[in-house]
Amino acid sequence: MKTDRHLRDLIKAGRIKLPIKKLCDSVRADYVIHLSDLAAYLDLKAKQPA
Q1: What is the pLDDT along the chain (50 residues), one digit of tens a residue?
Q2: Is residue 22 classed as helix, strand or coil in its secondary structure?
């Protein structure tokens, strides 16, 4: 994955189950993934067989 846009597209398509949020309602606000959500996702992926 080379860009954050590609990651957002995968999340929106449902291929990666991570909640993305904006810190404010501005159109130009960056999207964020909370560290606790990322940690939970990585823990879940580590428990799944490859």
Answers
A1: 789 889 999 999 999 999 999 999 999 999 999 999 999 999 999 999 87
A2: strand
